[in-house]
Write a structure and sequence with these properties.
It is a single chain. Helix content is 32%, strand content 24%. The strands form 4 sheets. Strands 1, 2, 3, 4, 5, 19, 20, 21 and 22 form a 9-stranded mixed beta sheet that branches. It starts with a helix and ends in a 14-residue tail after the last strand. Helix 5 packs parallel to helix 6 (177-189). It has 14 helices and 22 strands. It is an alpha/beta fold. Strand 1 and strand 2 (24-33) form a beta hairpin. The protein is globular and about 65 Å long. Zinc ion is lined by residues 90, 168, 197, 229-230.
Length: 456
């Protein structure tokens, strides 16, 4: 036995290794030492611990670019869905250093955040909302002094290692074209990606396409990298055309990418600006019964809508046609991201089931994309977007963030009525060399998750 083999902490034996960067898909042994992948070998390896992975796929852990829920409850559902890094990049956070400090040494999986325009604007305008603005930050235009205040908060967040700048313009419609442009300028100067929930949605002008063109223009004009979040819920039936515009812009050297979740409904707070006058048309002509109250699963009426809008809380919006979901989920360059958040077991099933649903439903059952392409959309492409050369890869030298799943069994179980159900068929998940899921069970009392910050 060689010295190298004797030093291995863990060996994953005889699994089907899939690595989208090198295009390797073959039976290999994977050796792990000191939190990193030390060897990927055709011949058997020996280590202190061996996991038999025959018949299972061994790949890089999934990187979720869009995870609002950043609590132990949420991390457990992420882990069971194969996610090893969960990032809050759309809404982002206000006090970046404090946010990271709160989670240090207490996280099951890796975590990170952007500097958020929404929370910065809420602070400057003294809004009373929680995750999303509820009153004072929604409609007013910023004075030059207020805009300076917003930019100062974002700039401080970037100094503290934020991964990018987050924006949800639909939640802050008072943000002028200038305010948004200035933020793109800041991001460009600091070489950070702007993660954007578009200003408007749906087919009626000003709708999803108009909103996409606003940020494509800002990205082109400033050189900042743009990532458009959940393209399907913003563009609805126009999604194929929006993807064509994004691809076309990318060919003209605009730095732009996008993501989608594999569900025909979105979810947001009913008290937010998403439900201001005209929400039906902005969501493609839906009505009250297409809204589902997350707390109870009930469909809404005009009366219950008015009552819950006053109260506030999460509501599912059944607005996205299945063929639109399919178009985005199967496009090789559209990343998979969940937009997940669960609170005491309530929320959208995407928080728990996104990754297993793509692998089970769209890869295995419907044969709509290859396993290699699907895994690239979940790990390699998000890693490359953020400049993580040590993640998103099942290669020697990479961080030992590893997901092992059964390609014949992997499937989501979470539903709109009962979202807090773990995915199935993902028996092993490792973060930084530590097994956090073993034999399909969360390993208690372990917190190997590390802060993921901007690295230039
Ligand atoms: Zn959003």
């Amino acid at each position: 036995m060689s010295a190298l083999a004797q030093e291995l902490d863990t060996v994953i034996s005889r699994g089907f290794v899939v690595d989208p960067e090198t295009k390797l898909q073959a039976v290999r042994d994977v050796g792990i030492r000191d939190g990193r992948i030390a060897a990927v070998s055709e011949s058997p390896l020996h280590g202190r611990e061996t996991i038999d992975a025959r018949g299972l796929v061994v790949t890089a852990g999934f990187i979720d670019l869009h995870q609002h829920g950043q609590t132990p409850e949420n991390y457990a559902f992420k882990a069971r869905d194969g996610v090893t890094t969960a990032l809050e990049l759309e809404v982002g956070v206000r006090s970046v250093a404090a946010w990271y400090a709160e989670r240090a040494g207490k996280a099951l999986i890796n975590f990170g955040a952007s500097a958020g325009h929404i929370p910065a604007r809420m602070a400057v305008f003294n809004d009373s909302g929680g995750l999303l603005p509820k009153d004072r930050a929604i409609l007013p235009q910023a004075t030059s002094q207020q805009l300076s205040g917003i930019l100062a908060i974002l700039s401080r967040g970037l100094n503290e290692g934020a991964l990018g700048v987050g924006m949800g313009i639909a939640y802050t419609p008072g943000a002028t074209r200038e305010e948004i442009f200035r933020i793109f300028q800041l991001a460009a100067a600091r070489r950070r990606t702007v993660f954007v929930h578009l200003r408007s949605s749906g087919p009626v002008e000003p709708g999803g396409l108009d909103a996409l063109q606003e940020v494509l223009s800002d990205a082109a004009a400033t050189g900042a990298r743009l990532h458009v979040v959940h393209i399907t819920s913003s563009e609805l039936r126009e999604t194929p055309l929006a993807l064509e515009m994004i691809h076309s812009a990318a060919r003209q050297n605009v730095k732009v990418s996008t993501e989608a979740y594999p569900y025909t409904a979105g979810m947001t707070d009913i008290s937010s600006a998403i439900f201001s006058e005209g929400w039906q048309q902005r969501n493609g002509g839906i009505t009250f019964k297409d809204l589902q109250w997350a707390q109870t699963g009930e469909r809404l009426t005009e009366e219950s809508f008015a009552r819950y809008r006053q109260q506030g809380g999460m509501v599912a919006i059944h607005s996205i046609p299945e063929d639109v979901v399919r178009a985005a989920v199967t496009a090789p360059d559209v990343m998979i991201a969940s937009d997940g958040i669960l609170e005491n077991g309530k929320g959208h099933p995407r928080a728990a089931g996104t990754y297993a649903r793509v692998l089970g439903r769209y890869v295995r059952q419907q044969h709509l994309l290859s396993l290699m392409d699907a895994l690239a959309k979940m790990s390699l492409l998000p890693a490359n977007l953020l400049g993580f050369s040590n993640k998103g890869r099942l290669q020697p030298g990479a961080d030992a963030d590893i997901t092992i799943f059964d390609p014949e069994k992997v499937i989501d179980r979470a539903t709109f009525e009962n979202p807090a159900q773990y995915s199935e068929g993902i028996p092993y998940v490792m973060v930084g060399g530590t097994w956090i899921v073993k034999n399909s069970e969360i390993q208690p009392g372990l917190f190997p998750g590390k802060a993921v910050r901007y690295a230039n």
